[in-house]
Backbone:
């Protein structure tokens, strides 16, 4: 089975939906239509992406359902969106400095991946130091979920490296 590549980065949809719902309440179809409109047709998120994501955002209390099947962002969702924006601004600043210093996209990507790995290592250390506070059953569940998270993050990093390498050759 061939891998499908998206026109937007992984994780962007979550940010984008929160961004749209901050502007005004929308249905899933309106979210899809707005993405198509704003991207000039370059990106059409599928219902298979949007509706499960809306379900996850609901379960995380980042959005809530209002009248007529529309969703709106909650205060917790707005806080999350603010954090996304701060992270994006930090990444943009880092990229700009690296570009000014003459680094190309591949080198810049590699540097940012290394920084991300450093952060993951720090989180791992913190996680293991605090894991002992939970019951053995909870520890096992947390470790399983954390392992899955790390494996997914590693796959994302590998995929980005492949894409950056392919772009530069």
Residues:
């Amino acid at each position: 089975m061939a891998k499908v590549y998206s026109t937007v980065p992984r994780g962007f949809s979550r940010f984008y939906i929160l961004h749209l719902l901050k502007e005004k309440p929308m249905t899933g179809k309106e979210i899809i239509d707005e993405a198509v409109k704003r991207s000039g047709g370059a990106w059409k998120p599928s219902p298979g992406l949007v509706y499960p994501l809306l379900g996850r955002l609901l379960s995380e209390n980042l959005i809530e359902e209002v009248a007529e099947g529309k969703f709106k962002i909650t205060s917790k969702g707005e806080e999350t969106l603010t954090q996304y924006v701060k992270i994006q601004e930090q990444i943009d600043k880092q990229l700009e400095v690296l570009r000014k210093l003459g680094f190309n996209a591949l080198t810049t990507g590699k540097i940012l991946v290394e920084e991300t790995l450093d952060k993951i290592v720090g989180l791992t250390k913190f996680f293991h130091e605090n894991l002992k506070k939970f019951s053995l059953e909870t520890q096992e569940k947390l470790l399983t979920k954390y392992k899955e998270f790390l494996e997914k993050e590693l796959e994302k990093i590998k995929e980005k490296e492949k894409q950056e390498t392919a772009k530069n050759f």
Observations:
- The helical segments are 12-23, 28-38, 47-59, 75-100, 105-131, 136-167.
- The two ends are 25 Å apart (CA to CA).
- The chain has six helices and two strands.
